[in-house]
Write a structure and sequence with these properties.
Layout: H1 13-20, E1 25-29, E2 35-36, E3 51-55, E4 59-68, E5 82-89, E6 94-100, E7 112-121, E8 124-131
Parallel strand pairs: 6-8
Antiparallel strand pairs: 1-2, 1-3, 4-5, 4-7, 5-6, 7-8
The structure holds zinc ion.
Length: about 140
């Protein structure tokens, strides 16, 4: 069974198209400066509609994580045990991603990660995190 592929909406199509090109985008409000993820039509802080897309440097830190031993669907059986983490990106927004890579069991709060992309279907990619080398 294959893993789910994102279904873009009007608000997220630009974001997913960038992911397919291995670029990670986030939004900043042109009125109040608030940074947000996931993509939305308006600012969650001031409700303005002056949102700007910016490229992320794709670096961050693990805020929290859990290790999944029993996947909710068979499509993730081959990955188990796998890591689901909240990642605080350096630009000031938070994303939920899997930590991938052979060393994923070394995930820890505070560990630095970089964002990579996993191809879920031909040309369709989702962001994932990989641990940076331990200091
Ligand atoms: Zn705002």
């Amino acid at each position: 069974m294959s893993k789910p592929v994102p279904v873009p909406t009007t608000d997220t199509a630009h974001y997913w198209q960038a992911c397919d090109g291995e670029e990670l985008l986030y939004q900043r409000c042109g009125d109040c400066g608030h940074v947000q993820f996931y993509p939305r039509r308006s600012c969650v802080s001031c409700h303005g509609a002056n949102m700007t897309w910016l490229p992320s440097a794709r670096r961050g830190v693990i805020h929290s994580f859990t290790i999944v031993h029993r996947p909710p669907t068979p499509s993730f059986d081959d990955d188990a045990p796998y890591v689901v983490a909240l990642i605080d990106l350096d630009e000031g927004y938070r994303m939920m991603m899997n930590v991938v890579g052979d060393d994923r069991a070394s995930s820890a709060i505070g560990r630095r990660v970089r964002v990579v992309f996993e191809e879920r279907a031909p040309g369709r990619k989702v962001p994932q995190a990989m641990l940076e080398a331990a200091p």
